[in-house]
């Protein structure tokens, strides 16, 4: 039996978690605010379940920060109804054991506590200060994107080389910028170089620089991308298109952290390397087009970004994010959200951003409807339509069916969530969670003309 601290300002949530933990054979200690939680954490606590939003001077993030500064601190898991890329990444880099979105089922509590108690005290990660979302924020509420956010939080402060893979337009550079922005190198430069956009005979000088007079036309010294990124992060995009000769030179730099400018002497560089490619590098290794040793040097921390069609829960949040960056206060109505969810998005997030810019430019009102998205190719969500219900893995297929059923039921009940939950045979709290997950929170407000944001924040409590 272990002592588990449950810190949450919602009495119902605390009691529900305490009951689940007690049923697992553990003793519980409850706290309704940050100050009480910090004091209770000194009382032989083996693990902490911590809410982010709590009253008083200490919110959950500050409690986590102070706990992780203590020697021998217990592992801490964040449970929040308002998960975002910022608080997920920040919590993980502060040393949180995990970051889950409420409501959390009993099976999830059992699994989480089992992992926390087996792990013992989690390794503390250094703190570099919270950072708010910026226009390049890593938007995503799907399970796949939350896992990406957690990886970023765990490795942002280190120097390990990261390899980001995914189709064109999935946001690989956004991941690289998040690694830089949330890490200890955030004050240093971020230098991005597209290896596929530069001719092979010029790429070496772009990467390593050259001395004055190194060749005809070299009228001045040039530092090159590696030295320009000294103290910061170098993002090598589309590294899979680099020729073999240049791969050998990159391998040496990755190993030695030393560059030799054309016509100059070797120079030490302090740089974190993040590489990205839309190609399958293992296939290219097998075909002899990519060096195996370089692949393993780059893929110390692999991060894969699934295509947008495999994470439908991210479509509406991303669309609203792109709209928020444009002039005006445009928003989506329920029909527009449905149209977006029906589109396969072969161009991924980049195509979605362009679609939002086009709809905003051509639309006449503040609310964007399905008619403003007529340029998209529609996809029939009904069984037997053009949607491939069996595409992807089992969780993806199940999520596709859940989204379609919830959307149809909400339309049939004219947004009445209580009636929709009854027809679907699930609890309302689970319905609210699914609506946030699939970006459908606005559907229930359509009768009043109000459009909810895709994070689903409303006045009704969640467990």
Automatic annotation (TrEMBL):
Response regulatory domain residues: 3-117
Coiled-coil segments on the chain, per record: none
One Pfam family of this chain: Sigma54_activat
PROSITE patterns: RESPONSE_REGULATORY, SIGMA54_INTERACT_1, SIGMA54_INTERACT_2, SIGMA54_INTERACT_4
Keywords from the UniProt entry: Activator, ATP-binding, Nucleotide-binding, Phosphoprotein, Transcription, Transcription regulation, Two-component regulatory system
SUPFAM superfamilies: CheY-like (SSF52172), Homeodomain-like (SSF46689), P-loop containing nucleoside triphosphate hydrolases (SSF52540)
Domain called Sigma-54 factor interaction: residue spans: 138-361
Modified residues (4-aspartylphosphate): 51
Protein's UniProt name: Sigma-54 dependent transcriptional regulator
Provenance organism: Paracraurococcus lichenis
